[in-house]
Design a protein that fits this description.
The protein has one domain: Hydantoin permease, CATH 1.10.4160. The chain is 77% helix and 0% strand. The protein starts with 14 loop residues before the first helix and ends with a helix. 53% of the residues are buried.
């Protein structure tokens, strides 16, 4: 049975390596970029409390289910789900669940690589002194110039994808394992260093008050739905990445305890990133904490450009962002590479090359959405907007919902019991309840909210 197999791709050398890999997959631009401005837009502390509750009650149960499917199948998400469908005697249509996550991951990577390229570009911009002493207008102009230059965007997109391919090509132990064991400690080292800097040079007390002063009067049902969505998406659920990493997880490792550690690290990065960013924001006149996505690429360069040693710290900050994006992106590349190796009998070099060319070509649509094609829209969507909406508002919620329902109602109980050995009976009951009822309701609400916001 699949339970006893190590799989053709190998396995993580330890539980700690899996934790670093899963944390690397979960920690990305969503923590560094989206969480701070979403928290800023929804009142801070009260939002953070609801976000953490949603992580525990919705994100963790679904993530556990996805890891369980991967570890039992010991293959790519596509083949793991297919095998479990057969083993459970379920309708073969459930096998499409594996495809949904992998395809969503590839589509996300196509525009994720372009956005991650912005962070790579800003390492040079900050380090070279080009943004020294800029005001808001100058910083906005510099960011606009980057977006308006297809050649620069393509260059940095290409650099980022090459970095991703270089890791995934090495396989589970020599590539992914070595990368996450190097990148994640480095990420936390830089994160703590920036936190210490923000405590001395930023307005740290204002940041702490903003993030942890619970003002429930500012918390609306819209904020709760935002917290649900952020909790769901920050853990990389429904993209095939966590299922693929689960396939390499040591058999004796406790899934529940391990995922709780991953969720803790992921949440810690989001909160520490918020403290760093808001400390710098509140120390600089004229910058609002709810400034939106431009907070990272417009507002922060203004702040760094006026602080003592700010240019160096700014460059280090964007190195941090790039590492987070890199660790996430390799997890999006791996599921499809694993399937090509299994189904088409390709070696990893060929599989990575084919997939990288596909992702790079698709990413050109995102590049041109900001310049050459910016005037072309269909139903209010540019190419980038369409891919973002399709994946974030349709594919990922549906994938997460189906994972919860599949494991909650369809998968043979013997499979679940074999993978969840050691879990306390009461904890198992809570987990099943969350999968069957809490997660579907919450994900459904986020799904409906996404459509309502866009079209009504």
């Amino acid at each position: 049975m699949a339970l006893q197999q190590k799989g053709m791709h190998g396995a993580w050398v330890s539980r700690w390596t899996f934790i670093m890999a899963a944390t690397g997959s979960a920690v990305g631009l969503g923590n560094m970029w989206k969480f701070p401005y979403v928290a800023g837009s929804n009142g801070g502390g009260a939002f953070v409390l609801v976000y953490l509750a949603c992580i525990l009650l919705i994100g963790v149960p679904v993530m556990m289910a996805e890891v369980m499917l991967g570890r039992h199948g010991r293959k790519s998400p596509i083949n793991s789900v297919s095998d479990i469908v057969d083993e459970s005697g379920a309708n073969r249509r459930w096998a499409y669940l594996g495809w949904l996550g992998v395809v969503a991951g590839v589509l996300i990577l196509s525009f994720y690589a372009v956005i991650a390229g912005w962070a790579l570009s800003y390492i040079i911009e900050m380090g070279s002194g080009a943004l020294r002493g800029v005001d808001g207008n100058s910083a906005a102009a510099a960011f606009t110039n980057l977006l308006n230059d297809p050649s620069r965007l393509i260059f940095w997109q290409t650099v980022f994808l090459v970095l991703c391919v270089a890791v995934v090509m090495g396989g589970v132990k020599k590539g992914l394992g070595v990368a996450v064991e190097t990148l994640m400690p480095l990420l936390f080292f830089i994160l703590i260093g920036l936190l210490i800097f923000s405590m001395f040079e930023g307005n740290f007390s204002a940041a702490v008050k903003f993030l942890f002063d619970f003002n429930f009067n500012q918390l609306t049902w819209r904020s709760v739905l935002e917290a649900m969505g952020q909790a769901f998406f920050t853990l990389s659920i429904g993209m095939g990445a966590i299922m693929a990493y689960g396939a390499y997880m040591p058999q004796k490792t406790s899934i529940g305890k391990t995922i709780l550690v991953v969720a803790f690290f992921d949440s810690a990065v989001a909160i520490i990133s918020g403290l760093i960013i808001f400390s710098i924001v509140f120390a600089t006149q004229g910058i609002e904490p709810s400034a939106g996505p431009g907070l990272m690429f417009i507002s922060l360069p203004v702040a760094f450009g006026t602080m003592p040693g700010g240019l160096l710290i700014g460059a280090i900050f964007f190195i941090l962002v790039s590492i987070a994006a890199w660790s996430s992106a390799i997890s999006l590349l791996e599921p499809c590479v694993a399937w090509l190796v299994e189904a088409k009998n390709m070696n990893r070099f060929k599989a990575n090359t084919i997939l990288a060319v596909l992702v790079w070509t698709l990413g050109l649509g995102t590049v041109f959405s900001f310049n050459l094609w910016s005037g072309y829209q269909v139903f209010g969507f540019t190419f980038f907007d369409f891919l973002d909406f399709l994946t974030a508002n349709i594919m990922l919620p549906i994938s997460g919902l189906l994972i919860a329902l599949f494991v909650g109602y369809v998968v043979d109980k013997k499979i679940i019991d074999s993978e969840m050995l050691g879990i306390q009976p009461k904890v198992a009951l809570i987990w099943r309840f969350a999968l069957r009822y809490l997660a579907p309701l919450a994900i459904g609400a986020v799904f409906i909210m996404g459509f309502y916001d866009k079209f009504f």
